[in-house]
Amino acid sequence: MLGKQAEACFEFLLKQSKRYRLLAANTQIQGETQTLGELDYLVFDTKTNKTLHIELACKFYLFDDRLGPSYEAKWIGPNRKDRLQEKLDKVKEKQFPLLHASETAAILEGLKLDVNTIEQQVCIKSFLFIPKNFNIEKFPKQYQDCVLGTYIPFLEFESEENPEAQFAIPDKKQWLLPPKNLTEWFSFSEAEERVSVLIHLKKSPLVYKKQKGKLEKFFVVWW
Question: What pTM was estimated for this model as a whole?
Answer without folding.
Answer: 0.92
